[in-house]
Amino acid sequence: MRQFKADLLARENAQMMRMAQQWLELELGMRASFSDLAQDVYTRREAGERIDRATLYRMERYGRLLRQMQAVIVGQYAPYVAAEVAEQQRRLLRSGIDDAAAAIQAVQAEKGVGATFDRLPVEAVERMVGLTGDGSPLLDVLRDAYPDAVNAATNVLIDATARGINPRETADRMMQAAGGTALNRALVIARTEQLRVYREAGRAQYMESGLVRGFRRLATHDIRTCPACLGLEGEFYDVASPLRTHPQCRCAMIPVVKGYRELSFQYGEPWLRSQPEATQRAILGKGGYEAWRHGVPLSRFASITPNQTWGDTVRVTPVKDLGR
To answer: Which pTM does this prediction carry?
Structure first.
């Protein structure tokens, strides 16, 4: 399963690069509008005009930039990302089924014999995980990045102008703020939704086999792993229950096959204790590291937040709450 995850993340990294490159190309087309607006606002400030949101709303150049941002984010980038994610979801759906079947067979192989089981048809799983042909549910969520990107760029413009920062640097900061908001939103949604489909396809295959009674959480063991996932590593789920996750969660599911000895693997707490102090601090943060070093178990770093729409969500317990 760790090898499956490594292969999955390698393909994901290539996709993230494509998405970032696509955004940068679109962003370049807006550079002149950002620069013109920053110069216009700077000139008005130098002439003694008060620069606030009311002033910006009256400016033609501000309205022009907003229309261009809407055309780029809503009209171009969101449809591109939705189509990209929908295509990758279908690939990962197949991989999820294949990898789950391979995991069952790997458990059976320890005894040298194994029962046969049915493989799920792809079409059935597509309906189960809620895939659509055009990625429309994702498209609606991605379009929500537009107002956030506008607010981020506007806040930077007002702040930079008040500080007397030159127009060129102001325009660069505005682009970074808008681009960071839109691109980061797209990357988070892509990672989260694609990995969700992969896991749910695998769980559906576990259920279809009739051989799997449940599964255990397998966290990623690297410096990017969140303390909550490490703290929950090894927890058991009934096969009918989806894995509780968080945005961009990279955890996988080890099947517990009926009639076979459970596979053993190193859980998060002993793994973290075997790492250098620098790695421990990087994962837990300063306050978290001190709490853990003084006896707070890693399991306390995980909290569960109920959500009627997305189901129970895993989050990292705030440091101030670790001792409670």
So the answer is: 0.84
